[in-house]
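ok new one. same drill as before - structure tokens go in, u give me an amino acid for every spot. 390 of them this time. try not to just spam alanines like last time pls lmao
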């Protein structure tokens, strides 16, 4: 089959690789009909994720038709159309019982990314996300093996919903939604979202759904900010133009700040030349440019929600300000399985239109070009969907 494989920084290729097959009794084989490139894939693409091997198949946002099922699979049948969450969870362990699916402690044989981990077990394995997270072949491919098929895949009923409407249930829609929940967004809330990429946009859509009154959105790509203003009624702030976006938000919020901030940028945040340089030579784990702004923009007693991926330490992380302001912080990989069914209902009812953010749909064969366009923000790229042709 054809699949998108990793060969090093900025070097991904669509190649012919061996077809996947059922290995465990609760596996399914999926014929992929649509798959997307995630901002998390860009961390890999830029060579920032350790433990990648040449030839690894990328992709953790995908859906398709069940081609074959292992003998222990009861939840789906051949021919079902399913969306698959990016975290692989067993459904049986301490964390799965608490619906903390991304913390599943049985599926990842590798070490995960915690630095001071002591003897804790790693969180869930992820599709297509390095040999820190299980080295599981991803779904930017014609076919993919899906482990734990009685827990992950969500069947899409025959109700006329197109792939593009439901594909983002695999990751960015639950991620934006969980980010809004972690930010305790409710009726009348004010929120600042840092990052107007797909995750920030899904967070804005979710914040609206949950009743947010004011949404500020910070980025430096005018086309992304303009889309968010138009689609979700955000107040855009371009950090290349506004001297200090957090201060501007505080000024517009009676000198207090917003109820909550969502950091949808993560460890590659732009804005601090020093941190960017230190991170490049591995003297710094993450750039703190975005999380510092999020902490600064939030009022006392408020919440910080961080769907953006962080890795390791940040020297400029102002925990004293978090303490002084009495902020709560939540982050982490999304417990996608927990939110997929309710979000599917919202899509079916017409409350959510995640497909609106798609700017590029291209055949899987052109995936390498898709990565380049998305990474360089060319052609006003917001989100790339790849369709295998089989
Ligand atoms: N927690 C999860 O489970 C989960 C799931 C999906 C994605 N993610 C993470 O979410 C983050 C965003 O993903 P995406 O798909 O939207 O990626 P993206 O790269 O398309 O978007 C990131 C945006 O942040 C902007 N940005 C950079 N520095 C900034 C700063 N200092 N302040 C404000 N904006 C800044 C960029 O211009 C860009 O538009 C990534 O770190 C990704 O890995 C996490
Ligand atoms: Zn993702
Ligand atoms: Zn589990």
């Amino acid at each position: 089959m054809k699949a998108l494989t990793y060969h090093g920084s900025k070097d991904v290729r669509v190649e012919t690789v061996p077809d996947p097959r059922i290995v465990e009794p609760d596996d399914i084989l999926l014929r992929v009909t649509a798959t997307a490139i995630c901002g998390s894939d860009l961390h890999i693409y830029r060579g920032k994720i350790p433990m990648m091997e040449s030839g690894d198949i990328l992709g953790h946002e995908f859906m398709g038709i069940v081609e074959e099922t292992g003998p222990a699979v009861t939840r789906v049948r051949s021919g079902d159309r399913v969306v698959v969450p990016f975290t692989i969870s067993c459904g049986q362990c301490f964390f799965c019982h608490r619906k903390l699916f991304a913390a599943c402690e049985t599926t990842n044989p590798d070490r995960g990314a915690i630095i001071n981990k002591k003897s804790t077990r790693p969180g869930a394995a992820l599709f297509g996300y390095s040999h820190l997270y299980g080295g599981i072949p991803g779904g930017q491919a014609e076919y993919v093996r899906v482990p734990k098929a009685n827990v992950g895949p969500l069947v899409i009923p025959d109700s006329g919903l197109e792939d593009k409407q439901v594909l983002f249930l695999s990751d960015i829609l639950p991620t934006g939604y969980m980010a809004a929940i972690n930010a305790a967004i409710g009726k009348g809330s004010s929120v600042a979202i840092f990052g107007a990429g797909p995750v920030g946009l899904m967070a804005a859509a979710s914040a609206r759904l949950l009743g947010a009154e004011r949404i500020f959105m910070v980025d430096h790509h005018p086309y992304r900010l303009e889309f968010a203003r138009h689609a979700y009624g955000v107040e855009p702030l371009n950090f290349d133009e506004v001297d200090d976006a957090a201060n501007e938000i505080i000024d517009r919020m009676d000198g207090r700040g917003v109820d909550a901030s969502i950091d949808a940028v993560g460890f590659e945040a732009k804005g601090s030349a020093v941190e960017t340089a230190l991170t490049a030579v591995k003297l710094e784990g993450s750039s703190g440019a975005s999380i510092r702004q999020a902490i600064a923009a939030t009022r006392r007693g408020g919440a910080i929600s961080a769907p953006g991926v962080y890795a390791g330490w940040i020297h400029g992380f102002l925990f004293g300000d978090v303490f002084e302001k009495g902020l709560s912080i939540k982050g982490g990989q999304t417990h996608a399985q927990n939110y997929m069914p309710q979000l599917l209902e919202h899509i079916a009812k017409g409350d959510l239109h995640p497909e609106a953010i798609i700017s590029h749909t291209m055949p899987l064969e052109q995936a390498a070009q898709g990565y380049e366009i998305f990474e360089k923000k060319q052609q006003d790229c917001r989100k790339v969907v790849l369709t295998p042709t089989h």
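The longest strand covers residues 28-36. and btw Residues 336-349 form the longest helix (14 residues).
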